[in-house]
Amino acid sequence: MNQIDPAEYVEAPEGVETLRFNDAVQQAKFELGVCMAVYKWEELNTAVENSWGGPNSSEKRDWISGIVIELFNEKIVDVTLIEETLLYAMVDEFDTEIDNDSALEIGALVIKFYKQVMLQQYGVIESMYHSWVNKKNTGDGAPKVVIAADPNNPDVSDEDDDEDDDGNINDDMNDSMDIEPESKQGPIVDDDGFELVQKKGRRR
């Protein structure tokens, strides 16, 4: 992968206050390029396929494409601005933080597409679009991620409950075993050495 310059930017010509193309075809091609760049973002695709943004996850992806396009209503846009916009959108809409440079790569791709559209070079954008259409028609989407229980960190709540129950049983058993039998009193002998007969208490 080529080295990405986060400070790379595009700027509207002098006297022009926006980066939007006046030519309708150029603007349409650029917007298509932004959509293809956003759809290329695997981290976002994973979030959409697994509905991390709720039932409207797919619509949220299109909305992210829209807010990136709106950035070019300004006079100057750089790679970092696009990257930050993408990262904030992932947190706000999908509750997902991205800790790699994937958003930076998408930002650089958007700037690249803008420069190509300026030169009316649409080949790469159209090729990506046709590939995306074919992929969509064949149903070759991103696989859903199944989040299973971690075998190295199982849920021990049930085990704790069992241990508590066992502890209660043991406590009850200990309580029942704390009662010691009364010691039998030995024979009473008088001063002359004769054993005295003791009177037994009445049974109740």
From TrEMBL:
Residues 148-204 are annotated as: Disordered. Residues 156-180 have a biased composition (Acidic residues). The keyword rRNA processing applies. Transmembrane segments: none annotated. Keywords: rRNA processing. GO terms for biological process: rRNA processing. Belongs to the TSR2 family. This is Pre-rRNA-processing protein TSR2. It comes from Scheffersomyces spartinae.
